[in-house]
Amino acid sequence: MSASQPPQPSSSSEPPVNPAEPVNPADPVNSAEPVNPAESVDLADSTPTLLVKIFGKDRPGITAGLFDTLAAYAVDVVDIEQVVTRGRIVLCALVTSPTAGGTTEGDLRATVHSWAGSLKLQAEIISGTGDNRPRGSGRSHVTVLGHPLTAESTAAIAAAITATGGNIDRIFRLAKYPVTAVEFAVSGTGTAELRTALATEAAEIGVDVAVVSAGLSRRAQRLVVMDVDSTLIQDEVIELFAAHAGCEDKVAEVTEQAMRGELDFEQSLHARVALLAGLDASVVDKVRAEVRLTPGARTLIRTLKRLGYQVGVVSGGFTQVTDDLKERLGLDFASANTLEVVDGKLTGRVVGDVVDRAGKARLLRSFAEQAGVPLDQTVAIGDGANDLDMLNTAGLGVAFNAKPVVREAAHTAVNVPFLDTVLYLLGITREEVEAADGVVD
After folding, report:
1. Cys-Cys with 361: which of 9, 10, 319, 389 at CB 3.0–4.6 Å?
2. Euclidean distance between CA atoms 292 and 60, whole angstroms
3. Which of 169, 227, 356, 383 is catalytic?
4. Burial of residue 32 (number of CB atoms within 10 Å: 0-12, 13-18, 19+)
C-alpha cells in the first residue's frame, strides 16, 4: 500500500500511524506482549484479506471508530497507513477476512459502509489475498528540494526514478518552508544508479536532489563536517582582514590567479597572507565581530547536536576565527590555518601545516576516527574546489551553493541560501526541528 500524498499531522484523537514507519505484518497490533519475530508466522499468500479505505473530511475519532467497527468481526490488522492533507483524511487498513462466528465479508462491508456514511465519509473495500507484495531489492531515500517545487519538476523526478527500474513506495513532505522538501521511498534499483540518474535530471530542471541508502545506518549518530568561508559563514575571512589592511584589490587579484589555475591553493594562501604583514593583531576581534553566519547555520548545528551528532569545521581560513566559531556554536572539532603573530603584529606568514584540499580530506578522516564514526556515516558540506576531496571522502558530500564543477562532482547539491535545509537530506522534518526548538534543553 502506498501513499500518494504527503502526510500532515492528524487531528484524530489517537496518534496517527507514521507512513514512514509501516507496520510489520509479522508483528501483532495492540498486543500487550511483544512477539519474538523468530516465532511469528508470515501471512500466507492465499489468506483472504480486505483492503478497507476511508476518505473524507478529517475529525477526531475516525481511526478509533473504524477499528471499533472492525473489532466486531474479529479481524487481524496486517497493515495500516493514514494520511491527512489539508484537512482530508485517507485511512487504509489491510485486514484478514472476518472470523467471528456467523459473520461474513458481506456483513463487514455493510457495517463499514453504514458507519462511514453516518460520518459523511466514503468507504471502499477491496477483496484479495495475502499481504502487500514485497518491496524490491535496493532501497533508497530520495529527497527533493524545490523553491518552489513545481508539478513539472515532480513529474520529471518521478519519471527518472521509473526509468531506472525503481518503484516509488511512499512519498511524504518534510518541509514547506523555507523550501518545499519531499521524500520518496524507492525500491527496485541501486542507490548509486539512482543517484547518477537523478543528478542529471535535477541539474536540467533546477531542483536539488539527494539520494541515500535506506536502512538503520541513516538513523545512526553521525559526524557532519563543514567548510567555513561561504558555507558556514557568508564571508571570505581573508577578505575581511584585507579590508582592514587596505589591500582588498591585491588580495582579489591573487584569488583570481588561483581560480585561473595559475597558482595552487598553498601558493595563493601564502601570497594573500603576505599582504597582511604589519597589521595590528587587535584586528582579529574586529574581524570576528564582522563574520556573518549563513542563514540556518545555528538551526542546523543546534538540531544536529540535539540528535547526538558531532559537528566540526575545516577551513582554508584561520584559527583566529574558527576557534571563536567553535566556542560560540558548540562545535566538536575545528581546524584551519593559523596566522603568525609576533609582538602584536601579523607577520604575513602562517604557521604549521597548511589546510588545503587534501588536508581537508585528511582532517575529515581524523575527526571521524576521533568521533568513532565510520567514514560512510559522515557528511561533508562545502562550496569550492578546495572542498572536493572532502566531499568525495564523506559518506554524503553536499555542495552548498557551489561552483558548477563542485556541484557536478558532489553526491548532491543544495542551491538555496539556507544551511538548515541539509537537515532534510538526513530525513529530519521541519516539524521535528520546530518541536525541538520549543523545548528548553
Report:
1. 389
2. 46
3. 227
4. exposed
